Amino acid sequence: MSRLSRALRVTLVEYFKKTSLNGFGLLYYNRRRRYQRFFWFLFIAAGICSASFVVFATLLQFLARPTITALSTLSVSQQELPLPPLTICSSNKLSRHKLQAYAKQLAARSGNTTEHWLQELQLLAGYFRANSVSAEAATRLQVALGDNWSADVRAQLLQLSPSCASLLLSCHIDEVEHNCSSLFRLTPTIEGNCCVLQAGNITTEHLQLRLNALRDDDFYLPHVALTAAYSVHLPGWLGRLHVSAGEFKALQVRALRLQADEQLRSYPVAERGCHFADEAAELVLCLPQCRLRAVLAACHCAPFYYSVVGQHNFSYCNLTHTACLQQLEVNEILLPHAHAANWSPWSCVHCLPACNDWRYELRQSLLGHVQPLETKLSIRHGGQRVPLYSQDGLYHWYELLSNVGGVLSVCIGCSFISGFEIVYFMVFRLWQNWRH
Length: 436
Known about the structure:
Blueprint: H1 3-18, H2 26-29, H3 34-64, E1 67-75, E2 87-90, H4 96-109, H5 114-120, H6 135-145, H7 153-160, H8 164-167, E3 168-173, E4 176-178, H9 180-183, E5 184-189, E6 192-197, E7 207-212, E8 230-233, E9 240-243, E10 247-260, H10 269-272, H11 283-299, E11 301-302, E12 315-316, H12 322-334, E13 357-369, E14 374-381, E15 385-393, H13 397-412, H14 416-435
């Protein structure tokens, strides 16, 4: 037997005689009682296997899902809960009276009649839904309009859309009447030019609106349904509903709060699944910007509802780009996993929700009916107790250490002292036994 082997054997015997690990000493003292020694060996082996299984399961769970989300309630004051950017869109995208005046100008500058131009201007539906018109006919109309159609398509469509003053008959905040034009602004959106609540710091319990449901200013656009007079939108997928003429509806704005612990900043973005405010744009801004990049790459222009002034060296899309925009819409349906130039939500996997954010949901109830020429909305918050989704790390380092240490202590009686003992005997004592 070599010198090192003899030293290792002596060290192991010494370790089993003096170790603080429960049960390990019995492997030495019961060396003449084979059955008892075999029993303690099985018992200790089972403890080691159990401890190893639980520790590895805990570590794998932490690596697979390092964060945890808890649901509770949060009490907020009315001042802390302003109304979100409420958007009211009319089903009528363009004003008939404004288009009639525009058609008269076109007729005066050409040999065609006003009725002819009104018929042709129905192709403006291509701005709101590219697949609703013929690409060839839309291109011919754009060529025919020539200099009579502004290169600033965004401003041109705003001029031809119904104004917020004509759509909103009255606005009351806590029973006090306000000028609707000072509260809402006509803003291009993917739903058309809509009235968007601008005063984001309005903290009110009650907002009441009377909407104009008179159809005398409606201009027919092909494949644009007019079943509901208005649609109401909030940021997010749960904030959308339709309101018909003559209805008196109560809308309840229900908020929920997303909150993440600051310590999650040290986690990779893919693990926590959200962005902090200083890391990236919010989801409601990121997805449109992602789609805009795809449209710019494919068609070299931007749809009118994107604001590209001072951001990109591109112009707004007009009717000559209808064929390209139609192809993009087809690709969204048929090729959901296509290349980034063929946009789909799968192309924007980098767009993640904000770690700290407010989300809103719209719920409606029918209170009754008013005269069929108007629509009435009563908008309130859902209450001052809102759901709170708190995201935190599954374990902090001291919690993970405590869990692992507890398992090792229960199963095999192991602690930091036991670890130091192994180092002491296998290094210092082995060295001394080897020298002697």
